[in-house]
């Protein structure tokens, strides 16, 4: 009897292992802005680049890869957490073959937004263009690896969108470009519609597992504290309210898409709450500073301004929630990535 039970248990374990293997994510495919750009902007005509020090100083080899971080981004850690390579290559980098891109690729471009006008303002690759690049990628996969392999990768990949903050900060709240056409509620609805259209577009191209992080607490970014005229140094409560309201709409949209798109697994990631907790209780996460960025004075530097204040940049970025005045540090990105990987595991767990 004990031998039979042992055999049955072994069969059960093998079945669970095979089911898990069948559910394994073969690639991480990324769309978005500077929080997800792993180097695409290095290869286009734009001022928004992170391919100079102090960016990348904690990346393997200390290389400034174009990531707006002292090291890796959340997408890189998500890839590693799912058993894939430890970094996600940039699609526009000519040094990568389609076989290297088969286990993960980022189409993201710093300065891009849900609103294509945002990307155009900053000379970035717009979200619409990123989805066109995904179409090209699919065809390259088919030609380079065969239809069956391409369909497997596209159909089982994890799709990550990290976009939206640039629309509010660079196109409405700080710089009133879209404010001349939309009221704030109208613009929020417009952006929500653009997010839905993007998810539906990649779904139509074969995507099924889509993770959609919400907006961070926009008002608590170091730059936002600096320009907060009503209460200098404090979080901008109104901008945080805008982010929370938009996220509620995004969460409702995700619920509706899961009902309407057969086979879709669209997951909302509550980045707002996670980053808010890191900012409010930094010591609980091993940080010492959640108010300033590590780069320069920490108040306003981002992008090329970081390179002008190298002498002031902090010694240990792991102690900071933010690396520059807008972007999280590598360590903060890793914490965010852990939440995404956990959500991926929970939503794709075999029966």
UniProtKB/TrEMBL annotation:
Tell me if rRNA-binding is a UniProt keyword of this record: no
Signal sequence, renumbered to the chain: 1-19
Q: Does the keyword Phosphoprotein apply?
A: no
Q: Which one Pfam family would you cite for this protein?
A: Lipase_GDSL
In which domain of life is the source organism classified? Eukaryota
Annotated SUPFAM superfamilies: SGNH hydrolase
Please provide the record's keywords in A-Z order: Signal
Q: Which GO terms describe its molecular function?
A: hydrolase activity, acting on ester bonds
PANTHER family on file: GDSL ESTERASE/LIPASE EXL3, OS09G0247600 PROTEIN
**Family named by the database record:** Belongs to the 'GDSL' lipolytic enzyme family.
- Tell me the protein's name: GDSL esterase/lipase
């Amino acid at each position: 009897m004990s031998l039979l039970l042992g055999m049955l248990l072994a069969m059960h374990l093998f079945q669970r292992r095979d089911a898990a293997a069948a559910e394994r994510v073969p690639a991480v495919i990324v769309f978005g802005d500077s929080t997800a750009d792993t180097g695409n902007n290095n290869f286009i005509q734009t001022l928004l680049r992170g391919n100079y020090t102090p960016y990348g100083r904690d990346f393997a080899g200390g290389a400034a890869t174009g990531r707006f971080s002292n090291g890796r981004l959340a997408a890189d850690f998500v890839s590693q957490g799912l058993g894939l390579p430890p970094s996600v290559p940039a699609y526009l980098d000519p040094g990568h073959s389609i076989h290297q891109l088969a286990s993960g690729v980022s189409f993201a471009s710093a300065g891009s937004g849900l609103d294509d006008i945002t990307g155009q303002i900053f000379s970035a690759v717009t979200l619409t263009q990123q989805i066109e690049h995904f179409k090209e990628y699919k065809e390259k996969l088919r030609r380079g690896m065969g239809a069956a392999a391409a369909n497997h990768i596209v159909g089982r990949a994890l799709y990550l969108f990290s976009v939206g903050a640039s629309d509010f900060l660079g196109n409405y709240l700080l710089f009133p470009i879209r404010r001349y056409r939309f009221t704030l509620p109208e613009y929020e609805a417009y952006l929500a519609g653009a997010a839905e259209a993007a998810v539906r577009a990649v779904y139509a191209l074969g995507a099924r597992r889509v993770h959609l992080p919400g907006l961070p607490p926009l008002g608590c970014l170091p730059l936002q504290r600096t320009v907060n005229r009503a209460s200098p140094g404090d979080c901008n409560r109104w901008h945080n309210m805008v982010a929370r309201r938009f996220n509620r709409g995004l969460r409702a949209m995700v619920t509706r898409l899961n009902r309407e798109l057969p086979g879709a697994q669209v997951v909302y990631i509550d980045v707002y709450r996670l980053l808010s907790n890191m900012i409010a209780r930094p010591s609980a996460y091993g940080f010492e500073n959640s108010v300033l960025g590590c780069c320069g004075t920490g108040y306003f530097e981002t992008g090329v301004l970081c390179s002008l204040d190298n002498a002031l940049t902090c010694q240990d970025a792991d102690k900071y929630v933010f690396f520059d005045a807008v972007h999280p540090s590598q360590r903060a990105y890793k914490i965010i990535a852990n939440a995404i990987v956990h959500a991926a595991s929970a939503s794709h767990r075999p029966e």
